[in-house]
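User: Please write out a complete single-protein record containing the residue sequence and its fold in token form, without commentary.

AI:
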Amino acid sequence: MARIRILLADDHTLFRQGVRTLLSAEPDMEIVGEAADGNATAEKAAELRPDVVLMDIGMPGPSSFETTRQIKRNRPETRVLFLTMYDDEDYLVESMEVGANGYVLKDSPAPQLVAAVRDVCRGGSYLSPRMLSQLVDDFRTRVRTTDRLPRFATLTPREKEVLKMLAEGNSVKEVACQLNLSVKTVEAHKFNLMRKLDIHNKAQLVQYAIQKKVIKLPVLA
């Protein structure tokens, strides 16, 4: 049976040693390398070609999000699993935008981390139960308050950004390039904002953006 080849990326040596001890005890897992900053993580991912990279947030050097983007660009089949102390929805969303396959909190029980590594290696995704619970609670809150809020207030900051850029005449591909996102991610944001605003075409989108002063009317000479 082929083992899951894992690269540990964390700037805390003792933490890496603990995770190494934990995962090396699993018969189907092996640690093939370690890294303590963004540059070393990208280099070792290219050199060692691991199945899974366990990625911390907040290491020295390039951000973990930029490092993940580089790893996925160079070798899409490598799975990236964020292992972090931050139970922050913005970090979670950003990790998904750059192509991460899972998000596990460092205070999770050991069996959850082991299960997460196996799940993402098999091609699935994994989200810590606490993060999933937060997302569900947030969704329920939005559902309860949507009818009382102006539609524009229901947009996320990223959706507002995409709305502005599309209304200014940028294509989905151009928006993706400028925001360093995938075309698929921008299309998802576009779909969500148009659904929330009950907008069905580009002309309505531009009209709405002008009405809400997201963009300004051009000044005629």
